[in-house]
Amino acid sequence: MSNISGQIKRECRDIQRYALLALVVWSLLFLGGFVEYDTLTEERSVTLAREAAKANINRDIALRNWINQHGGLYIETSEHTPPNSALDASTHGLLTPDGRQLTLMSSDYLIRHFYEHFGEQLGVESRLISASPLSNLERPDPWERKKLDWLIETRHNETFELIESDSRPALRMIQRLGLESRCQGCHLRRSVGDDVGAISVSVPLTPFRQHQAELLRPVYLGGGAFWFCGSGIILLISELRRRRALERHEASSELRQAATVFLSSHEGVVIASLQGDVLAVNPAFTSITGYSQEEIRGQNLNILQSGRQSSGFYDEMWSAIQQRGFWRGEIWNRRKSGEIYPEWLTISTVFDEQGDPVNYVGVFSDISVIKQSQEQLEYLAYHDPLTALPNRAMMRDRLGHAVERLHRSGGQGAVMFLDLDRFKSVNDSYGHRAGDRVLREVARRLKTRLREGDTLARLGGDEFVVLLEDLVNPQSVAAVASDLIALFDELFDIGDGRHVSLGLSIGICLFPEDAGRTDEILQYADAALYQAKEGGRNTYRFYTDALTRSAREKLALEAALSLALEREEFVLHYQPLVRLSDREITGVEALLRWHHPERGMLAPEAFIPLAEETRLILSIGEWVLHQACRQLRSWLDQGLVLSTLSINLSPVQFHHQGLVDSIERVLRETGVPPELIELEVTESALMDPIGSVEERIARLKALGVRLAIDDFGTGYSSLSYLRRFDINRLKIARSFISSLEEGEVDQPLVTSIVTLARSLKLQVLAEGVERDSQLGCLSMLGCDFGQGYLFGHPLPPDELDLLMQNR
User: Of 94, 63, 90, nearest to 76 (Cα)?
Assistant: First the structure.
């Protein structure tokens, strides 16, 4: 024991202390159980004594009733059975023919005399006591008097108490008796039912306790044996733990020696389970792979696989390990950084004492330096030596992986074939050195526009290919193509102060929409490139003409939209809002129109989605606010009575942080009363987290403006939103109103919306009212306001002036 460290000594002492504590707790548990069981046993003894007392009382009552039913009992008089002095001897005496004197005894008198002489033999003391005793035999003792008075007073039928009688424990019970009609001969001044006495019983507890003690003896013996066994188990466990601690200390000494070798080795070492999960690695492993002990522990060794070896390679490797117990050879693995590297690996099986495999140990060294020359050859096989870009082989490989991955994920990709316009003239005029310089500069420029995950490859000559993965939509490809073409607006320096101008033609193939195989994708992109060159060069073409037109139209529309404000091409038209009860115009809604220089007047649905996507809607929306409020100010100054100016807010505007400040500034500059402004938001705009939406609405309401939900019923809002948000009006969507006809007052959707608004005390406005039949239905439903061609088309301000004056 002298070589045991201080730590192991402390651990052994702790084990002993815990064992002692466990013994104390174990003993206290048993002691508590015995105390509890003893208490229950005492309660059982009292219960049995009480049942015996009750049985004795019931027996006395049964005997009393039997005697009374037979008119009493004649007994020969003697010194033990004198005549009842309370009865007339002439009427209750009887002389037998043989000269014996008999006396008629009542049940009470008989039972009293019976227990007086034979109660001790029964082991129970029982007697009849009287509330008004005529003799000492029926006179109650102090305890009986107290309990009898309590029973008469409380009208309880019986009671009991544990007492000490002659230094012996006993249970005394008393049961109240009432006067019966046959007893009035002795109790002339009493009425039937009066409380005249009681039956008093005293049962000794000692016999019952002795019986319970006999029953408890085997329980105590068994419990003691069980306690002894448990104590032995506790001591045994503590001793086993102590021995294991000693064995662990000895084993740890050996492990420390092995760990020194494990940690100081310059070769990577990994210990894995039979399932290939990493249990431990040494610092050299971390240095080679980049994975720390914490990162790799618990991970499967598959995480290191490079993917360069086939499944057959690994099958042969593990087959050799299982047959011979080891494998040695060259393998390619992957570092944490993603870099693939070669290593010389030896895997050995570790067996236990029974010869069963328990672990694998791998020892490897990095042979990257040896492989460096081979990697150089590999690089040249997959890269263009002039531009250092991937070549045709690598492009096909990456395209194949992209097709498989996007097919599984449902994503979209594109291949762009790029061809330099007028490049042949550069080679012919200035030589191949100048041409090579141009190609390197082209590669540099193209890479600046592409994402890190995109692939740019040179196929040869002046042909380049771009692989785009995970596209949002086809239009994003058109944007990339336009940017790549724009890179060629700048001249190319070919040295000696000379510059050349080149163009770029692009052919685009989308996959998997246009093609699903690598060869087809490349073929279709090449065909689209041909179309681009045929279309005048320095442009791009999609393999599908429809996509080409759509992408061009969107880009053109976006360019024109960005200039529309500057060119003052936007105008506002106003549509009347009518109160249905009297058809009075109470307000107007400001509706945006774009006077496109080529396509004419465009409705909002033609350009608002694009404005929201490009966030131009923020500047357009602020212009609408200024223009509409200035027009309302003009109408108010003319004396027109309008209670509402409704202005639409897009979700982008509604979520913008500067919205409230912008509205406050417009109201201050125009002097329009805020209560006349009603801002319309769609249900989709309210789908942010409810807390942020509620805060934004509260800030708007603090300005004094009103809020309405546009196209209600077509979105996702819930009733809880309507209850929480401070909304003033619901606008029923046009699609619901178009289905209304005269007589269809119970149209379910419209009816539900109107009923809901009424219950929430909100105004209701129906959009798209075009026929008198629809107006009739809405009026019958109780709709408040209407808007549509039936009342007036969206009009410029001057035409709306005439409409309101004529009404």
Answer: 94
Q: Which residue has the tokens 């004419």?
A: 600
Say which DSSP state 795 is in: B
C-beta of residue 270 within 8 angstroms of C-beta of residue 361: yes
Q: Which helix (H) or strand (E) holds 104?
A: strand 101-105
Q: Which residue in 758, 756, 760, 754 sits closest to 786, CA to CA?
A: 754
**Percentages (nearest 5) of helix, strand, coil residues in the chain:** 50, 25, 25
**Two structure tokens written together for 213:** 């003690």
Of 111, 130, 116, 102, nearest to 67 by C-alpha is 111
Kindly report, residue by residue over 92-145, the tens digit of the pLDDT.
666 777 777 777 666 666 666 666 665 565 567 777 777 777 667 678 888 888
Q: Which residue has the tokens 């693995």?
A: 333
Do 81 and 103 touch, CB atoms closer than 8 A?
yes
629 has a pLDDT exceeding 70: yes
Judge contact between 498 and 435, C-beta under 8 A.
Answer: no
* CA-based nearest residue to 517, from 415, 419, 409, 391: 415
User: Which H or E run includes 503?
Assistant: strand 503-511
Report the chain's mean pLDDT, rounded to a whole number: 83
For 240, the enclosing helix (H) or strand (E) is: helix 206-264
Angle at 153 between CA 152 and CA 159, to 5 degrees: 60
Tokens (6 digits) for 25: 């707790």
CB atoms within 10 A of CB 206: 12
Phi, psi (degrees; rounded to nearest 5) at 542: -85, 155
Tell me the backbone φ, ψ of residue 800, rounded to 5 degrees: -65, -30
Nearest alpha carbon to residue 198 among 104, 49, 88, 64: 64
Q: Distance between CA atoms of 178 and 198, rounded to whole angstroms?
A: 8
As a dihedral over the C-alpha atoms of residue 473, residue 475, residue 479, residue 485, rounded to 10 degrees, the angle is 120
Rounded Cα distance between 544 and 547, Å, is: 5
- Cα distance between residue 536 and residue 525, in whole Å: 17
Match 């027996």 to its residue by tokens: 59
For residue 620, the tally of other CB atoms under 10 A from its CB is 21
Q: How far apart are the C-alpha atoms of 155 and 250, rounded to whole Å?
A: 83
Output the CA–CA distances (angstroms, integers) from residue 621 to 183, 451, 692, 803, in the order listed: 111, 33, 21, 27
